[in-house]
Amino acid sequence: MNVIIKEVSTKKDLKQFVKFPNRLYKNNKYYVPQLVSAEMDTLDRDKNHAFEFCESKYWLAYDDNDNIVGRVAGIVNHAYNKKTGIKFARFGWLDFIDDDSVVEALFNTVEQWAKDNHLERMTGPLGLLEFDASGVLVEGFEEIPTAYGKYNFPYYEDHILKLGYVKDTDWVEYRVDVPEVIPPIYARAAKMVAEKEKLHVAHTPTKKIVSRYFDQIFALMNRAYSNIHGYSELSQGQIDDLKAQFLPQINMKFVAIIVDENDKVVAFGVCLPSISKALQKAHGKLFPFGFIHLLKALRKNDTLDTLLISVEEEYKNKGLNAMIFDAISNGIRDYGIKYVETTRELEDNHSVQNLWNKFDTRLHKRARCYIKNI
Question: Mind listing the domains of the chain with CATH numbers?
Answer without folding.
Answer: 4-170 (3.40.630.30), 176-373 (3.40.630.30)
